[in-house]
What we know:
Elements: E1 2-6, E2 9-13, E3 19-23, E4 28-29, H1 36-46, H2 50-57, E5 64-69, H3 75-84, E6 91-97, H4 101-108, H5 110-113, H6 120-129, E7 131-135, E8 138-144, H7 147-150, E9 159-162, H8 176-186, E10 192-195, H9 200-208, E11 212-216, E12 225-229, H10 241-249, H11 268-275
Parallel strand pairs: 5-6, 5-9, 6-8, 9-10
Antiparallel strand pairs: 1-2, 2-3, 3-4, 7-8, 10-12, 11-12
Amino acid sequence: MTIPNEGGFELVHLKSGQRSVRCCTHGETMHVGTGPSTEASELHIRQQRIVERAQAQTACGAPFVLWDVGLGPAGNALTTLDALRAIAAPVEIHSFEISTDVLEFALQHADALGYMTRWEPAIEQLLAEGIVQPLPHVRWQLHRGDYLAQLHNAPPPAAIFHDPYSPARNPEMWSLEVFQAARERVGAGTCLLTNYTRSTAVRATLALAGWCVGFGVATGDKDQTTIAASRMDLLERPLGRDWLRRVRASTNAAPFRGGRYAPGPITDADFAALEALPQFG
């Protein structure tokens, strides 16, 4: 069952009983496995231990910085706000989105979606002013436009929720250049990056961009996802040489470059570079 299409989006019922937003242009349903709030909790918030890490950051006197890459209908950001209610640690959420059309659509259907309840005024202010303080200790800023152009306007992140449309529909957001720019922005800091895919090509791209890469948690109908880190010791289940053998045998392991979606086997040069990384030594 769907709510009639408005401006390229529609509400859909998921198997879990929750509702989510489907982009008719891309043909993709957001948070399709379990729904917006459940997926955000499982994939990002609990896996990254956002609440615990934000509390630990308080001792350093600086806010915990979270990048919400692909704001979409704000499921990840709002579920994070719900999780942060119980603590008083200073947090900055920096949401990146090229267009807020989907968020504006979701806001029109806040009651049906459920997870937006209580947060409508904050979303309205974010859309109108680009910044809002939804909780006394949380500052939420919207960066509109191209991600590569905007990421230097945000402080280095301790956590990244990487949640754009899929590589097939939005390849520029999964490119080597994008992951390198984010890794360079982290610098010597501590950072975890989580995303919903288990794609070999995406994992190879992350690794070649300078991230340490591991197996992420299961969520919905996915038996695993992907987690990356600025340091190897932050990963509980890092990819190893067994995974390298699967890369070599895969017909779809070529890293993404230049915003192009071009599935294919990995080249000898890219495989050699991957194999030489400290993670696989």
